[in-house]
Write a structure and sequence with these properties.
This protein is α+β, with helices and mostly antiparallel strands and about 140 residues long. It has a single domain, classed as Endonuclease, Chain A. It has a 4-stranded mixed sheet with strand order 1-2-3-4, sandwiched between helices. A hairpin with a 4-residue loop joins strand 2 and strand 3. The termini are far apart.
């Protein structure tokens, strides 16, 4: 199957994909804020520039898109039918970087929480999980 968009249009579409302040990230921040948590966002002094940093709880939260970060078993983690080698390499690099980042944060005694985009379909369950994860002592 070939791409139905021109190269210029595809490039324009891809340039609009945000890495910060995405809708899923904003929703997680809203859930936490409404629940009384206070945090910093995109703190550059930590490995991987976590999306949310709850310093009081020594916890960082990453909000991962299921497609880009390959949520195992998720129907949103599809692989494009064209340029599959490119995409496979891209996804493997993303996952390797995620592992390195988590390991570096754990080595610094931070509690790391990964929120998957698909979890936002049930915000009440997600908030309960976040409460449990944030209250855990860092390893």
């Amino acid at each position: 199957m070939t791409d139905s968009l021109s190269k210029a249009k595809r490039s324009w579409n891809m340039s609009r994909i945000r890495s910060k302040d995405t809708k899923p990230e904003l929703l997680v921040r809203s859930l936490l804020h409404c629940d009384g948590y206070r945090f910093r966002i995109h703190k550059s002094g930590l490995p991987g520039k976590p999306d949310i940093v709850l310093a009081k709880h020594k916890t960082v939260v990453f909000v991962h898109g299921c497609f880009w970060h390959r949520h195992n078993g998720c129907s949103d983690a599809t692989t494009p039918k064209t340029r599959t080698v490119f995409w496979k390499n891209k996804f493997e690099e993303n996952m390797a970087r995620d592992k390195r980042t988590v390991a570096a944060l754990i080595a610094l005694n931070w509690n790391v929480v990964i929120v998957w985009e698909c979890e936002l379909k049930n915000p009440n369950e997600l908030l309960e999980r976040l409460r449990r994860e944030i209250s855990k002592p860092a390893v």
